[in-house]
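Q: What would this complex look like in 3D?
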Amino acid sequence: MSREDPDVIDSVEKAFRLLQSFSAERSAMTVSEAAAATGLTRATARRILLTLERLGFAETDGRSFRLTAGVLRLGYGYLAALPFWEHAQPHMRALSDELRESSSMATLDGGEIVYVARVPASRSMTITLNVGSRLPAYPTSMGRVLLAALPEPELRSYLDSTTLERLTPNTITDPDELRAELRRVAEQGFAVVDGEREEGIRSAAAPVRGSTGRVLAALNVSANAGRVSLEELRGRFVPRLLETAEAITKDIAGLH
Amino acid sequence: MSREDPDVIDSVEKAFRLLQSFSAERSAMTVSEAAAATGLTRATARRILLTLERLGFAETDGRSFRLTAGVLRLGYGYLAALPFWEHAQPHMRALSDELRESSSMATLDGGEIVYVARVPASRSMTITLNVGSRLPAYPTSMGRVLLAALPEPELRSYLDSTTLERLTPNTITDPDELRAELRRVAEQGFAVVDGEREEGIRSAAAPVRGSTGRVLAALNVSANAGRVSLEELRGRFVPRLLETAEAITKDIAGLH
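A: Here is my prediction, written as structure tokens for the whole assembly.
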């Protein structure tokens, strides 16, 4: 984004930057801490924090500021507008119940996948990925499904601008090899990833399509490699995943 | 919010207003439609939409604008900072599996409850309430639990500023009667609501507490009145709900 662009309202950019600087590790910040976290001046950070407070997005004890549940309103307009939002979860839950593993749905935003729905496995005691959380696209099964559906110019731009980091010994880091894998994903209609983002985690993903055939989102099932072999993932999980993605696609088509 | 307040940055308020004007019904808007929906001038609406686009929160085909998954980032800082966020869902899922009904968690924001987690019942084919969605507090079981935990001045201010609408023939609309019910909720440690927001829906809710005993959120189970009698809700659902709320409270305490 060009700093000189007259269409960009400077204070709006700063307000969003400050809002996004809150996190699990920085759940409450003083004016000074917010200024340090964002690179804004103290005066600007203070003005923005007070603005966020007046708008109901932050609260303060007079010293520290923290976000309120009001910020969830900001994402809700997007989620509510997703055609699959209301219809995917019962199917995902049935899939997760049957396979006893977690199932997620994600869309692509820039070079990252963004979780828009998630059904954790019953047994799961640690949930670290939830709606709104993000991962790089290239080493994940949902990312592969979404990248495989990109028009060529967008895929080229993604590959040109993305460093394929070796996150595990399995990660595909050669752009040509990734391209070949994405072609395979497009042809077979699903992706299988074996510990490329995190060792010991396997997952399979399939596309959910709109009525025109356009890929709207990716649906996945992921499992611990100690519990589920690659053969079981391909032989038992993938067929059920494809059926579920198809059922969601049909439900969505019925809406229009 | 005073229009004259020098601490409120006008353009920030307008940007958030425009962002929140997107919805399921208005998932894509032209500059003119956005101006009409928000009361902003076309020039201002255009500048803000272009700003949102540059920041990755909106995309355009040259005519209409729609939100991107980028907006989910804005709410994620809040959710990630909730101490119960990662720990509640496995417990909620076990509860929902056992009772075969949906379970939700909500916090209070202004006079509304805001869903922060939700596990739909397997059988559910219509999910209309999801993370980030909002309901008035007074006619809901989670709202009653959260209102019952408010300090007296805040409760008084809530009752003074809220019109208790008769949403169904069952809704408590008398402030004194609501106060008495909230005292009962505080004493017994749970709330039961029978079709006060929507006829045919019954629910029970209990508080989830932080390590200091402060109520952080409300946990509920809701069911169709045709499937679950009030006796079953009280006799079978409430004890499991209380156990689950207690288990989540313990898990959170273990973190600190």
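A: To summarize the key features: Chain A has two domains: 10-73, 82-253. The first strand of chain A starts at residue 28 and ends at 29.
Q: Very helpful, thank you.
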